[in-house]
Every structure is written in C-alpha cells, then in structure tokens.
Design brief:
heterodimer; A: alpha+beta; Four Helix Bundle (Hemerythrin (Met), subunit A); Heat Shock Protein 90; six-stranded mixed sheet; 27 helices; 29 strands; 45% helix; flat; disordered C terminus; B: mainly beta; OB fold (Dihydrolipoamide Acetyltransferase, E2P); 3 helices; 9% helix; 50% strand; globular; two-component regulatory system (chain A); CheA-like_dim (chain A)
Chain lengths: 769, 138
C-alpha cells in the first residue's frame, strides 16, 4: 500500500464510492427504465473512471470503461432501452472494474484481470445479440447457451456460431483471474476495503461543531484542574489528571481532522501565474515546495486571498519583463517560488521572486509624497523599517493602475487579513535580486496557548506566540528597576535597552498597586521587541478564542476574548496592535492625521471621477468632468457661421455657440482641418460646443491627487496616463462661448447633478436652493 | 396586539418586543473592556459564551445607578448574536394593542428619538418602546 501513489489512492477511494453508487443506480434504473438523472449519474461515473484511468495509464481499465461508456451513450440517447441483459452486462462490467481496482490497490498494477470477455459481452449487447450473452452469465453452462441461442435469436442467421464461442469463453475467462485473487490473498480483500472504508467524507460544519465542543471541554478541563489543585483529594487529583490527558489527546485528534495541505490553495496558482504572466508580458516559472504542509481549514480559507494577492503582486511588479532581465544579467525567465514549512509552532509561507526588488528609497519618497510620513521621519529609519511602510493603508508602489494590481488594495489589506487570524506578514527585499514576502500563520485558530496576566485587577491573555520571556521586577532591590530616557521608560535587559510599555497606560486604566512588584513580559511584535509592564503573571493555559463583536474589535487592542478556568472572561491582547498604539506613537499620529485628512477629502468629493481627456494642440492635454458632457460631435468647418463676432453652428434646429478651447486657454490656435471636433454641453435647454483638436481618452481621475496650480481657465492639474493634464474650468470655457449660459435656472434636478461635478459654482448652488 | 418584556430604568417603564428577548437574568460578573465606548459595561460569561453587555442607563443618558442596587440583564438577539442589556428591574410581559401607541413627542432629545420608538399609554403610566438594534449599538 505504501508504494501506491497518492493520486492513485484518491482515485481508488473515489472509484469505490462511485461504484457502490453505480450498483444502486443500475438496480434502480431497472425499476424505472429511462430515468434520465439515473442514466446521467451512471454515465458520469463510468466516464470519470475512464478518464482517470487513461490519465493514470491503466489501459485495460480504460478499455472496459470505454466499452461501458459506448453502451451507456446509446441508453442515454434513447437509442436503446434498459432491459435485463443490459443491466446484467453493466453490473458485470462493474464487477470487472472492481477486480481491476483491487489489483491496482494490491500492487499498483492492473494485475492479471482479463477484460476481453466482458468487453465482448458488452459489444454483444450493443449488437443486439443480447439474450445469448446474458445466458451464460446467469447459468455459466455452455450447453445451456447452445440450447438457448437458436431459440432466442433465430432471425440473425450467421451470428449464433460466433456467439457460441464467445459465450462459452465468457464465463470461464473472468472467473479464472478472479478466483486466485480471492483465494491466495485474503489480506488483499482487506486492503481493498481499507481505502474505501477508512476514509469518509464529513461535513465541514460537523467538524466545526466538534471543534467548538472540544473547546468547551478544554475550558471545563481547565476548571477541573484548577479545582483539583486546591484539594488534598487524591482521587480527584488523579481523575483530573486523566481528564487532562484525554482532553488533550481529543483536542489534538479533532484538530487533525481539520487539517488540510496548503496545496489546496496552491493548486490554483499555476493557472493564475500563467494567465497573469501572459497578461503582463512576463516569463515566469512557478516553483512550489512544501505543499503538503498542513493548516487548519479555516486558516487556509483566510490566507487564500492574501496569498493570491502576493502572487499577483510578484508577477506584476516583482518580476521584470524578459528584456529588462536579460539586460540586468539574469535569466529571461523569472522564478516565483512558493514555500511552506513548519517553524516554531507556526506555518511559514513564503512568496519569493527573483525580480527587481523593492527600493527602500522609492518607498520612502512615495510615503512622503502621499503624506503618510514626513521627510524627516523617513530619513531617520533603517531600510528594513522603510519596507514596513508598504503595509500602511493608502500605500501602493504601482506607478500606473494596471489591470492586475495597484488599485489601492494594497499590502495593508494583506496585513489586516493575516493579522485577523493571528498571523504576521513581513517582507525582505534586495534591490535587483528579489523580494520575499513571509506569512507566519498559527496552526490553528480556535485553541491557543496563552499567558494570563493581571493588570489593575483585570485579567488579560497574552498569546504565547508573541511572548519571548518574562522578567520579574523586584521593587525592593534598587538598581534593577526601570530607568527613563526622558519620559520613555526602558529596562536594561542583558545590556540592551528594552522599551517598556505599561499595559495600564496603554489601556487607559488607572495604575495598579504601587511599584511593589511587577513583571515585564517581553513580547515580539512585527520587528519590534518591547516589554509589557503588568502587575502579576498568573499562569499559562490553553485558551479558547471567542470572537469579539466588531465594535470591540475596532478598538484595536484585543484579538478576542476567552473564558478562563474560573469562569471569568478575559480579553486576549493583540500585541501587534498594542505595539502600534504605544510604540510609534508620534509616527502613527502623523499617519492617522494624514489618513483622516484624506478621508475628509474623500467624503467632500467623490475620490474618483471620470474625466474626458482632450488634446488642444501643442501637446497640451485638458481634462473635463465627463458627467457634464452631453455629446461629442463632428462638425464641418464650412458650416461654422459668425454671429456678432462669435462662432456658431446650426445644430439640431438651434444655434450652437462655439468656443475654441485652445484659444480660451491661450494656446497657439493652429488651424484645424475640414472637420471640427466639438464637445457639447447642455443645460436648461441651452447648449454650447467646445472645439478641441482630439479626443484622447476617458479615464478615472483621483481627485485627491490634484495640484492646485491655477491659470486662466484652469482649476489645477493632475497626472493622467503618466502625462500632466490640465483640468478645465468648464464654467469659464462655456462662458467664453455663451456668456448667458448660466443665467437660466436649471429646469430639472438631473441637470443640476450633471453640473455638480464642476468645481466652484457658488451661483449654481444658490440657484438650486 | 404586541407583547413587550418590560423593565424599569430610573423609575420609568420600558419595553422590548418579546420576540427579540432571549432571556432575563441576574447580572453576572462583568469583565470591563478598557478603551471601549462608555456604554459598554463589559463582557459576561453566559454559559461559556462571551456576551457583550450594554448599560442602558448610560445609553439612554440617565444617571449612573447606585452601587448598592444590583442590576439585571436582559439578553436580546441582535444580528443573530446575543447582547446583554443592563436594566434596573425586570417587570412583567405586557400585551398591548396598537390603539394605545403614539410616536415620541417632538420635544424628545434627538439622540433619544433614535432609541425610543414611541410610548404605549397604559393605565398606570407610559410604556416606552425601545428600538433594540439601536439600543444595542453602543
């Protein structure tokens, strides 16, 4: 069995299941011939076996299945109706398939099972010589066949003689190999059953429910352990210990049932990478190692999106196009490797590429540009810390918005998702040689070891994953205590200064009992190590994580809650969040301020707006809000007439005043050709046309990225499609064509909406009210 | 006809639609949640389940209760999850018809108008009907 390949094993398990179903279906089909669902089910089963056996190079199995399939096609298409001989031959076929499967399970080969006879029988049924073929199967007596066939098939004159031979051979041949297998290898029968019987399909919900129950059991166990430790009752202590052991094993067992190899998530990656590489014009080779590393299913689900995001990101931004790679002295084909392995009670998943790497300087520049950090702040930190900026909300290094990534859904989402399941994500990058994203994910979510600590009379749980060590501070001895760098408390831990964070201060609760004795829990968050100052450490226990309501989760200090052995509820501290809260206080305030301002700007005006980009000659590009454009028209230059020095054109039965945008904006005004391209604006029954040189594109414009450089007829500029584009003050331009355009009040509210996108129209707002 | 689970807060009678109420019971030991909004009275262990507790007095802008009186908990279902509301005393389940109902007066504070759907005019006084979802949203 050991040498049987994993794929083959799965094929066997599945096929056994399917064959059992097939037996039932065939029998049921006899009762209700012509039932299409049943026929389809049978057809699918045989078809699957045929396909898989062909793939696994089990030639004989494939031939048998193929013969069966041919017969079933006739049945399915209604060219033949189900009768007993057909059922018989199909059941016989099923048996032969089973024999072959048994042989495969025994030694990985199809063994000595002969398939010719059954195939002949199937063919015979298909050829309409049914009654004959059926007979020997039932009676297994050649003589009977001889007697039966002339009677049954008198019409087909030449057929009987052939049939005799076949029917004589039929019962003998399949019986021979079948008998020895059953006879001399009884353990094979056991093995045959084992694959099918030792694995069952279980509803995931049932497993989840089981896991919850085990969680409760662990809690009850903790309670009993606590009770028993306080008594002298030997029996109770012994029982408690036993319960402890059993609960532990049960927990482990149930946990195992929920484990799935990470391959389940990876299986999609080759396709994603292939498609993406094609879309981005990259050559990418995907390497995956450690796909059999197992993770809790719920965690697997949770890391699916972050992983996909990282992979997409690596292909799109990490790996360079082939020509760039060759120029940099690398192989034209980039390597993207996915690696998973166990380390320190966690699963580590790496997404590594050998691409261009991330330039910390560029990251810093970007952060400053986006107002997430100030120039002084980025100058002060190391390269590794600069890379951490990638995880800030609102950060995206993509220079252009592409189809693939760079739409603002950045690494902050990846980090949020990974941290939501108690994991961490970090990045290493060397410019020119590649980037490694590393996800650390706990093995399981539901139950985790934690340290319970006391702070101002309340109990909190610190996940053991974050904990490095404990340092007891003895208040009595001087010189071993806390020192201060200005206002920041630090502790000398083996000669190094460890920044201290008082839990009571972070949580904003009053300080606990005086400095008498306290404990430093040295914890690790992201790249920072710091000491969490608590009043007392109680013990370590396995805690069951209970989800917190979204309201409390949004506070950003707690990862969840748990019920302790004594029935009290304790909050589980989110060490990462606390670190962010306490350590980089100043930096965070700055970024929070920036985020708040961006948010405000976003609520004032829609952050994205569709704009029409036009050329006005001389290489200048002008953007105008698309929402206010009614139509785009081509007008013959010859049709332009002059009314009081203004250009107009007859348009849909009215007079359309025109303004040449290049002249309005002080351009060169080079002569246009035969045809004029006109952008038509309409409002309250009036229309004006703006003459432009060319229509370039319609794009999304990020309103928050506008610069405020104003000029006559412009409200600012922005970068669209990597070119500086001027933003047209539509009002000024329109007034140049028709100075009375805005005098009429809009007649309907949609027209108002139409113009609401235009910046700066105090009178318009007045008209609306 | 509608049925309300009634309770008192600072001398006034309030009611919650009976179908929303899971149970009413004595208050449990609460674990406070630092940094949470003031209306969050803490977390309780309800038969192994961690349940958020909202102090209705704070929520309704009433004065804090005297420490000596032990509050009661009304556990209601909000979005399929239990939330416990702290009240002074639990009263009867009353059945009232739509005829006695009237919307909140215009003079009611805007913040409270979201919480109080209206009042049933009972013989003994007014029964103020609470919007459970609003009340539980701290």
């Amino acid at each position: 069995m050991e040498d049987v390949d994993e794929i083959v094993r799965e094929f066997l398990v599945e096929s056994y299941e399917n064959l059992d179903q097939l037996d039932r279906d065939l029998v049921a089909l006899e009762e209700s011939p012509g039932s299409r669902p049943l026929l389809s089910s049978i057809f699918r089963t045989i078809h699957t076996i045929k396909g898989t056996s062909g793939f696994l190079a089990f030639g004989r199995l494939e031939r048998v299945a193929h013969a069966g399939e041919n017969l079933l096609v006739e049945l399915r298409d209604g060219r033949r109706s189900m009768d007993q001989p057909t059922t018989d031959v199909l059941l016989r076929l099923t048996d032969v398939v089973r024999e072959i499967l048994a042989a495969i399970e025994a030694d990985g080969t199809e063994g000595a099972v002969s398939v010719d006879a059954v195939i002949e029988a199937v063919e015979a049924v298909r050829d309409g010589r049914t009654t004959v073929a059926e007979e020997p199967v039932v009676v297994a007596e050649p003589v009977a066949a001889h007697v039966a066939e002339p009677v049954a098939a008198p019409v087909v004159a030449p057929a009987p003689s052939i049939i005799v031979e076949r029917s004589a051979a039929a019962p003998v041949v399949p019986a021979q190999p079948a008998a020895p297998v059953a006879e001399h290898l009884p353990e094979e029968v056991l093995a045959l059953r084992s694959a099918a019987d030792t694995s069952i399909r279980v509803d995931v919900e049932l497993l989840d429910a089981l896991m919850r129950q085990v969680g409760e059991l662990v809690l009850a166990r903790n309670q009993i352990s606590r009770l028993s430790s306080g008594t002298d009752d030997v029996d109770l202590a012994r029982s408690a210990q036993r319960l402890n052991l059993i609960a532990g094993e049960l927990q482990e067992g149930v946990m195992k049932t929920r484990m799935q190899p990470i391959e389940h998530v990876w299986s999609k990656m080759p396709r994603i990478v292939r498609d993406l590489a094609a879309a981005c014009g990259r050559e990418v080779q995907l390497e995956m190692t450690g796909g059999d590393t197992e993770l809790d299913r719920s965690l697997l689900e949770a890391v699916k999106d972050p992983l996909t995001h990282l992979v997409r990101n690596a292909v799109d931004h990490g790996i360079e196009p082939s020509d760039v790679r060759v120029a940099a002295g690398k192989a034209p084909r980039g390597v993207l490797s996915l690696r998973a392995y166990h380390a320190g009670g966690q699963v580590v998943v790496e997404v590594a590429d050998d691409g261009r790497g991330i330039d910390p300087e560029r990251v810093a520049a970007k952060a400053v540009e986006k107002g997430l950090r100030t120039a002084d702040q980025v100058a002060a930190v190391s390269h590794a810390e600069l890379l951490q900026l990638l995880f800030l909300p609102g950060f995206s290094t993509a220079e252009a918005v592409t189809n693939v990534s760079g739409r603002g859904v950045g690494m902050d989402v990846v980090r949020t998702k990974v941290e939501a399941i108690g994991g961490t994500v970090d990045v290493d990058s060397t410019v020119g040689s590649g980037t490694v994203w590393r996800l650390r994910i706990p093995l399981t979510l539901a139950i985790m070891p934690a340290l319970t600590v006391e702070c101002s009379g309340d109990l909190y749980a610190v996940p053991q994953v974050n904990l490095l060590e404990l340092v007891a501070l003895d208040g009595q001895r001087s010189g071993s205590g806390i020192e201060y760098v200005h206002a920041a408390p630090v502790y000398r831990l083996r000669g190094e200064l460890l920044p201290l964070v008082s839990l009571a201060a972070v949580l904003g609760v009053e300080d606990g009992p005086a400095e008498g004795s306290s404990v430093i829990a040295v914890v690790q968050a992201d790249h920072q190590r710091f000491g969490l100052l608590v009043d007392r450490v109680l013990n370590t226990e396995e805690i069951v994580v209970k989800p917190l309501s979204a309201r409390l989760k949004s506070i950003g200090a707690y990862a969840g809650a748990t019920v302790l052995g004594d029935g009290r509820v304790a909050l589980i501290l989110d060490v990462q969040a606390i670190a962010r809260r306490a350590l980089v206080g100043v930096l965070e305030q700055v970024s929070a301020e920036a985020a708040r301002r961006a948010q405000e700007a976003a609520t004032r005006t829609a952050p994205m707006e569709q704009v029409l980009v036009v050329g006005i000659g001389g290489g200048r590009r002008v953007a105008m809000p698309l929402a206010s454009v009614a139509r785009l028209e081509h007008i013959k230059a010859a049709h332009v007439e002059l009314v009081g020095g203004r250009e107009v054109v007859q348009y849909r039965g009215t007079i359309l005043p025109l303004a040449r945008l290049d002249r309005v904006l002080g351009g060169y005004g080079d002569e246009l050709g035969e045809e004029l391209l006109v952008v038509v604006y309409s409002r309250a029954g009036r229309s004006v046309g703006l003459v432009v040189h060319e229509i370039v594109d319609i794009v999304d414009d990020d309103v928050t990225r506008h610069s405020d450089i104003e000029d006559h007829g412009l409200v600012g500029s922005t970068v669209l499609g990597e070119r500086v584009t001027e933003l047209l003050d539509v009002r000024t331009a329109i007034l140049a064509a028709d100075h009375a355009f805005y005098d009429t009040a809009p007649t309907s509210s949609d027209e108002l909406d139409e113009l609401a996108g235009l910046p700066g129209h105090p009178d318009l707002v007045g008209a609306a009210r | 006809m509608s049925q309300y689970v009634t309770f008192t807060l600072d001398g006034s009678l309030y009611g919650i639609d009976v179908v929303r109420v899971q149970e009413a019971l004595r208050s449990h030991v609460r674990t406070r949640v630092p940094l949470a909004p003031p209306t969050v009275a803490g977390l309780v262990n309800l038969r192994g389940q961690v349940v958020l507790t909202i102090d209705l007095r704070t929520r309704l802008g009433l004065s804090g209760r005297a420490d000596l009186t032990e509050p009661m908990m009304v556990v209601v279902q909000v979005d399929g999850e239990p939330v416990s509301l702290l009240v002074d005393e639990i009263g009867d389940v009353v059945e009232v018809g739509p005829g006695s109902f009237e919307g909140p007066p215009d003079t009611l504070d805007a913040a409270l108008r979201q919480l109080i759907l209206g009042a049933h005019k009972l013989e003994g006084g007014l029964l103020l009907v609470l919007d459970v979802d609003q009340a539980a949203a701290a």
